[in-house]
Amino acid sequence: MRRVNNINQTLKPSSRFSEKSNYFFYFCQITASTWRPRWMCSDCDVCSGITIAKRIFTIEDLHSEGSTITMPRSGLGPPINTFTRDAAMQQSRRQFLKAGALGVAAASSLASLRSVHAAENNVLKVGLVGCGGRGRGAVKDALSADPNARLVAVCDAFPEIAASAVRGFKEAQAFGDRVDVTPETTFDGLEAYKKVIELCDVVLLCETPHFRPMSLRYAVDKGKHIFCEKPVAVDAPGIRSVMESAQIAREKKLQLVSGLCWRYDHNVKEMMKRVQDGAIGDVLSVRETYLTGKLWTRPRKEGDTEMMFQCRNWYNFTWLSGDGNTEQHIHSLDKGLWAFGDKPPVAAFGVGARMQRVEQPDYGDIYDSMGVVYEYEGGRAIYAYYRQQNKCYNDTDDYFCGTKGHAAILKGIINGEKVPKVESNMYLQEHQALFNAIRSGGQTYINNGEYMAYSTMLAILGRMVCYSGKRLTWDEAINSTQSLAPSAYTWDATPPTLPDENGRYKVEIPGVGPVYHQVVRS
Q1: Helices 212-221, 236-252: crossing angle, 10 deg rounding
Q2: Across the strands, what pairs with 418?
Q3: Nearest to residue 459, comparing CAs of 384, 380, 397?
Q4: In 381-398, which positions are buried (b, 16+ CB within 10 angstroms) versus exposed (e)?
């Protein structure tokens, strides 16, 4: 089917639309008397308006409709032109007949393609696990990606965080009317994810990383489509569980999209394509930098058990976050893995320490800096540098060196020349990919399970060699039986690390092991 811009044939189509896609002619109602056109296909952008209804418009509708028809600019954004019935009547008879025919054809096409595209009233029920900043962002992106998606249930370890998130969602101008969460569908606790998953079609797994292998498996077992944030685990047993879950999801044809968002960024994808097409020859080495300032800490609240405090302050405990190399640096490490064809290294060794973030109990037991060499066959390597310290040199990028040149991926430079950039919202785009795949009727299938597991394991391997001071092979690391699980998943359970009488937690010292370690500043 030929692409049609809109009813008056004057607006240019978005360059982001695929030339191969079929577009159907219908409008979204955004106020009681205002309608906005939207294109529905497996590759479409979605209208940014608050949709309260949808309908097909035909030429007869335009002659009789007293409503205002608003025409937005290409892609997302507010309307730039308004057409009333009188303005529409001024269009040529030929344009109206063409538009009318397309409208009728679209109506019949929609009826016949319900197996490919969801019916107009086909709601996808969305559930959120983990109501922190990343979870709140994921809800915004998910509901922006699909106008027929509705948030029906949420959970968090702590009730006040879940309640605060729900209030914010309902007040959101862009999607608040599609938030159906009630007190009965707002849950809290360490196993509340089960209740959310049972109520939804699509689940957003944005909880503390330690719990992700369990919630992912439960979602797969229950037959749900999944958005799974990074990292997907904090230890090797968790990685093996995730890989099994991803395989089961593949067998069930459940869509599984990873929160490793650079994989969905238009500009990074273009850079990686050029590198993989030989722009710098064969990639010999990758230098990853994730050099930033300190992150947050959260204090113990009155009445908190030790388990509660550590779960509040989760980033600063290895068993919950995996350490910063796993929770943060994974974005960079993932691009290194991508550069080497998503293949794991042979072995790794590294150095690491905690030098600025040393106060306890605030900073728990994690490091604030690591440097790791990931060894690949043929002398190739990833050199990875992670640091979170204030008043230091900062840089976050991916530097590739090849047989014919070099590239800086985030800076968008290949062999000294800038690569033109386009508008890109990777957070929205990963959710558009998920929901479009769900609604494709089987034509599109996404399963990011393997690379999200390998990238997480790459980060875990880096932590293991820095903590231990050893050189470890990939096979040794991924087959490790070391589990970072607590005694149970209740608030009175014993976490894997406990403070001494001075509030100090044991810290891994390379070549020594975990010891109570105190840094005294002069």
Answers
A1: 20
A2: 413
A3: 384
A4: bbbbbbbbbeeeeeeebb
Tokens representing residue 369 in the block: 């800096």
Output the six-digit token pair for 284. 């010999």
Locate the domains of the chain by residue range: 25-112, 265-424+451-472
Preceding omega of 79 cis (within 30 degrees of 0) = no
Look over the chain and give the mean of its residue pLDDT values, rounded to a whole number.
83
The whole-number average pLDDT for the span 494-508 is 95
Half-sphere exposure of residue 210, counting CA atoms within 13 Å on the CB side? 23
Spelled out in words, what is the top-level CATH class assigned to the domain 265-424+451-472?
alpha beta
Q: Which pair of tokens denotes residue 481? A: 């039986």
Report the C-alpha gap between 212 and 461 in whole angstroms.
18
Residue type, 238: G
How far is residue 111's CA from residue 104's CA, in Å, rounded to a whole number? 11
Contacts of 231 (CB under 8 A, 6+ apart): 209, 212, 322, 326, 327, 330, 455, 456, 459, 460
- Average pLDDT of the segment spanning 150-172: 98
State residue 72's pLDDT score.
34
| DSSP secondary structure, 223-259, as one string | T-EEEEPSP--SSHHHHHHHHHHHHHHHHHT--EEES
Please report the pLDDT score of residue 521 as a whole number: 63
Out of 58-67, 364-373, 423-432, 469-478, pick the least confident. Answer: 58-67
Which tops the pLDDT comparison, 42 or 519? 519
Report yes or no: 150 and 180 within 8 Å, Cβ to Cβ: yes
Amino acid code (one letter) for 472: L
Report how far Cα 277 is from the mean position of its chain's Cα atoms: 26
Question: 210-244 pLDDT, tens per residue?
Answer: 999 999 999 999 999 999 999 999 999 999 999 99
Q: Is 351 helix (H, G, I), strand (E, B) or coil?
A: strand
**Any bridge partners for residue 154, and if so which?**
128, 186
Provide mean pLDDT across the span 66-72: 37
Structure tokens at 265: 């960024």
**For residue 255, is pLDDT > 90?**
yes
